[in-house]
Amino acid sequence: MKICVNAGHAPNGIPDPGAIGQTGLRESDVNHDIMREAMYCLEQVGYEVLTVQEDELSRITDASNEFDADLFISIHCNAAENREAQGTETFYISEKGAKLAQSIQNRIVGRMKMVDRGIKRGDNLYVLRNTNCPAVLVECAFLSNAEDEFVLNSEAHRIGFGKMIALGVTDYVATL
């Protein structure tokens, strides 16, 4: 099984760090840590993993497609003008993507005790439209929400998100 894991936004936040929390926590840094843990866990169960982190969306999808990935996971943190918005949501396009999204969503919500915003179609998301395999985009939590940012600012919680994403993948693969 070959899996491409993408951490949204450029490494080190240059030029685009993505969302920035009230404490200055950068989405690109959080995504990187979660991606690294997911990669480690997936490799431990024998999957071949390609990690990609950069701003150019076509380079991300090209890398996944050239790798001939069986699954694609993009990791992000959400933000909203409404600072009350919080929780985890996972986007998909295909039927297989929906099953993968639900497996990951179940793990994160169940173990990380995040607000469940559900799985949603992401037809407008470039990385989901332009990969050649079942693909999901996980919005782990809201950097614009103080409670969610507190969770994301914890190394232990970032490790937890990575582990739950990996477990969601193994749950999905077990159904194939």
Fold blueprint:
Blueprint: E1 2-7, H1 27-44, E2 48-52, H2 57-67, E3 71-78, E4 88-92, H3 95-112, E5 116-121, H4 126-129, E6 135-142, H5 146-152, H6 155-174
Parallel strand pairs: 1-2, 1-3, 3-6, 4-5
Antiparallel strand pairs: 4-6
Helix pairs in contact: 1-6, 3-6
How helix-rich are the residues, as a percent range?
40-55%
Shape: globular
Low-confidence stretches: none
- Using DSSP, what is the number of strands? 6
Number of DSSP helices?
Answer: 6
Strand adjacency order, main sheet: 2-1-3-6-4-5
Radius of gyration: 14 Å
Separation, N- and C-terminal Cα atoms:
12 Å
The largest pleated sheet is described as: 6 strands, mixed
Quaternary structure classification:
single chain
Order of helices and strands: EHEHEEHEHEHH
Secondary-structure content class: alpha/beta
Give the DSSP E fraction (strand runs of 2 or more residues).
Answer: 15-25%
Mean pLDDT across every amino acid position: 95
Describe the structure in your own words.
- The chain is α/β, with parallel strands linked by helices and 176 residues long.
- 44% of the residues lie in helices and 22% in strands.
- It is built from six helices and six strands, in the order βαβαββαβαβαα.
- It has helices spanning 27-44, 57-67, 95-112, 126-129, 146-152, 155-174; strands at 2-7, 48-52, 71-78, 88-92, 116-121, 135-142.
- A six-stranded mixed sheet has the order 2-1-3-6-4-5, with helices on both faces.
- Helix 1 (27-44) crosses helix 6 and helix 3 packs across helix 6 (155-174).
- The longest helix has 20 residues, at 155-174.
- It starts with a strand and ends with a helix.
